[in-house]
Amino acid sequence: MRMSRLLSSKKVFNGRLFTVYRQKRRLPNGFIKTSEIIKHPGAVVVVPVFQNGTIVLLRQYRAAIDIYLYELCAGTLKAHEDSAVCAKRELKEETGYQARSMRKIGEIYPAPGYTTEKIHVYVARGLLKVGASVEDDEVIETKILSRMQIRKLLKSHAIVDAKTIAALVLGGII
User: Fold this and answer.
1) Is the backbone of residue 34 left (phi > 0), alpha (psi -120 to 50) or beta?
2) Are 143 and 72 in contact (CB under 8 A)?
């Protein structure tokens, strides 16, 4: 498979979580395309499953779209951080649980048209309550839901977060 060729790249924004570049590429078909690309360090999403099959979901406020969303716990990788380490940290911080076992079940690219972000998907089992340490800019409620309740939320379009839907599918929850 022939890949594109980078002709030029200019940093146009450098933020706390990502950097934006304006790039010019020669595509595999010869067309020259200019794009704004978000360089993202990557992230994790975790499906926390109790022994009885219930799942920990979060009801989290998202300022960018000014609404609450049902989501699985997730977070951005720190520089050079292993995704499993990030998954354990985010599980504890956002849900207040630690897992006896954490297994990677896949990877997804949530928006490959404009970002390099890759999300590593994990399933956590053997959950032990240890207490959450939510960050100041996170408004989160923890919900323990059955698979049936999650399916109802999906059917009613109450779960619309793409990484959550993808992780639930990869985890065999839905």
Assistant:
1) beta
2) no
DSSP letter assigned to residue 3: P
Inter-residue contact 23 to 6 (CB < 8 Å): yes
Instruction: Please give the backbone phi and psi of residue 132, each rounded to the nearest 5 degrees, phi first.
Output: -80, 160
**Average pLDDT of the residues of the chain:** 95
- Which amino acid, 138? E
Mean pLDDT of 6-12: 96
Domains, the chain, ordered by start: 5-39 (no CATH), 43-170 (3.90.79.10)
- Calpha distance 90→122 (Å, rounded): 11
Encoded amino acid at 37, one letter: I
Identity of the residue numbered 57? L
End-to-end CA distance of the chain: 34
Mean pLDDT of 144-165: 97
CA–CA separation, 33 and 24 (whole Å): 6
pLDDT at 1: 58
Amino acid code (one letter) for 43: A
Distance separating alpha carbons of residues 12 and 21, to the nearest angstrom: 5
